[in-house]
Specification:
11 helices; 19% strand; 8 strands; alpha/beta; Rossmann fold; single chain
Length: 308
């Protein structure tokens, strides 16, 4: 399912400049608008990183203003970081304390140009697998996970007061699918996994083929791993009164076949037998096109809970 861009929310929270001491390029101003200085998010930075395959990424980082606790800051890694970082970081920075959040570090993993999420977030599938929707690039999740594990996490955290036992990853839609793959393949990387509206349908539920051996991998962890699954109430059915609306009819067949809610619920039930703390909730009133902000809010609350 395509991940929507939070256009309205982003319009309210300007994105940071690449660095506090680097002037942002001048942008064309609407007719009649005054020209002012670019907005720069306090204590933020953007680093470029190149993967072993030569792909460039932008790593957005926001540091707290408060000193670290004795064990170090909790840290949240967000997928689709180009879209999600500014909203999440500024909420944590300015409003988190009012929502019971401890000071923490927000990381957004994004791209300098067009998103490569279809490639980076999806597993390899055998030829002839039913895909539900075509994708020109796919199957790069394993390489992307290696990049996150071997370059992003060490590059961000080296020498910093970070509590590695309070490291969280969060993603939505295909990002939620990647979050599950990270848990199933490398439960050592993160303590908490927030998988919102995950595209479990992808490739005839290819992600579920990673489940064998999970109990053994989880059993090696010194602290129990946590998985928070969610899906919007109207991801596989029309909102009330929209049953004949063209906006629903255009996506109805795909939405029903993708079984976003049922698949997430079924996975949560299946994983309750594993040495894993699992929870699942249906987000009231949300469709797949509107669930990004509730997903970000969930990720922030899980990552920075004052009493984890």
């Amino acid at each position: 399912m395509p991940r929507p861009i939070l256009a309205a929310a982003i319009a309210m929270v300007p994105l940071p400049a690449a660095a506090a001491d680097t002037p942002a390029p001048a942008a064309a101003s609407p007719a009649g608008a005054s020209t002012g200085a670019p907005y720069v998010m306090p204590r933020s930075e953007v680093r470029s990183m190149r993967s072993p395959s030569g792909v460039d990424y932008l790593i957005h980082i926001a540091w707290p203003k408060d000193p670290p606790p004795p064990g170090g800051y909790p840290i949240l890694y967000l997928l689709d970081g180009t879209e999600s970082f500014a909203i999440a970081a500024e909420f944590e920075n300015r409003l988190g304390v009012y929502s019971g959040m401890a000071p923490g570090v927000v990381i957004g993993i994004g791209y300098p140009g067009e998103s490569r999420r279809q490639l980076d977030y999806t597993p390899k599938v055998p030829e002839g697998t039913e895909m539900l929707r075509p994708m020109t690039e796919k199957g790069g999740a394993e390489a992307f996970l290696d990049f996150v594990a071997n370059q992003v996490i060490p590059g961000v955290e080296a020498g910093k007061p970070i509590d590695a036992d309070r490291r969280t990853i969060a993603g939505y839609s295909l990002g939620g699918l990647f979050t599950l793959q990270a848990l199933f393949r490398r439960p050592d990387l993160f303590r908490t996994y927030v998988s919102s509206s995950p595209s479990i349908w992808y490739g005839e539920k290819q992600v579920l083929k990673l489940l064998p051996g999970l109990a053994g991998r989880l059993g090696k962890m010194k602290t129990p791993r946590r998985l928070f699954l969610s899906a919007g109430e109207y991801e596989q059915s029309a909102p009330p009164g929209k049953e004949r609306d063209p906006s629903w009819l255009n996506i109805a067949d795909l939405s029903i076949r993708a079984r976003m809610v049922d698949n997430a619920r079924d996975l949560a039930d299946r994983l309750k037998t594993e040495p894993l703390q699992v929870s699942f909730r249906v987000v009231p009133g949300e469709t797949h096109a509107s669930g990004d902000w509730p997903a970000l809010r969930d990720a922030l609350l899980r990552a920075f809970a004052d009493k984890p």
